[in-house]
Structures are given as structure tokens and as C-alpha cells.
Automatic annotation (TrEMBL):
Keywords: Carbohydrate metabolism, Cytoplasm, Isomerase, Rhamnose metabolism
Gene Ontology MF terms: L-rhamnose mutarotase activity
Classification via PANTHER family: L-RHAMNOSE MUTAROTASE
Name of the protein in its database record: L-rhamnose mutarotase
Length: 104
């Protein structure tokens, strides 16, 4: 059985194209880690007016990508993305969990 996890993040204004480019070229080893960790489906949507990203993950198990911070490749990705996103001191993206209020 799968469950959905949703959260929001912020990119720096003007970084939309670079964010898209980096994700178009996502590292194969990072993609493999996500899949191997049970992330079955992962979509990120951009609200260009507010530079807010909305992420939805379908996971088999209890954990999503936000729980992989101890992995070296994830830390490397966070460092790579830190110049275009709002981040915490450890370069992890500032993310806020979203509560599901409706599903059809």
C-alpha cells in the first residue's frame, strides 16, 4: 500500500529556470536512491507568483525523500541546490509539511 506525502518549499525569485534545468538533469544515482527507498512517484509544482514549490510524493512505506538526509548523495544534492533555494543550516531545503484536506 502507498501513501502520499506533500510539502512546500521556496526557491529564490529568478531561479525558476535554473531549478527546472537542474531537475531535468537530476543525477541518476539520486533518482535510484529515491526509487530504492520507496518513493514511487514524485512531482514538484511551481507557483511562479510566489516562487513556492509544492511537492507530492507517493511512497511505499512510511518515509519519503525528506527522510534521506543522512545519505551522502542527498547531502551533495542539497549543497548543489542551496544557492537557489531557501535552506536550513545543513543545506536541506526549508520544507513545510502539508495536510491533506480533500481527495477524490
Amino acid at each position: 500500500m502507498t501513501k502520499q506525502i506533500a510539502f512546500r518549499m521556496k526557491i529564490k525569485p529568478g531561479a525558476e529556470s535554473e531549478y527546472q534545468k537542474r531537475h531535468d538533469e537530476i543525477w541518476p544515482e539520486l533518482k535510484n536512491l529515491l526509487k530504492d527507498s520507496g518513493v514511487v512517484n514524485y512531482s514538484i509544482f511551481l507557483d511562479r507568483e510566489t516562487s513556492t514549490l509544492f511537492a507530492i510524493q507517493e511512497v511505499s512505506g512510511e518515509n519519503g525523500s525528506q527522510d534521506l538526509g543522512n545519505e551522502a548523495i542527498v547531502q551533495k544534492w542539497w549543497a548543489y541546490m542551496a544557492d537557489i533555494m531557501d535552506t536550513n543550516e545543513d543545506n536541506s531545503p526549508v520544507s513545510v509539511s502539508l495536510e491533506e484536506v480533500f481527495r477524490l
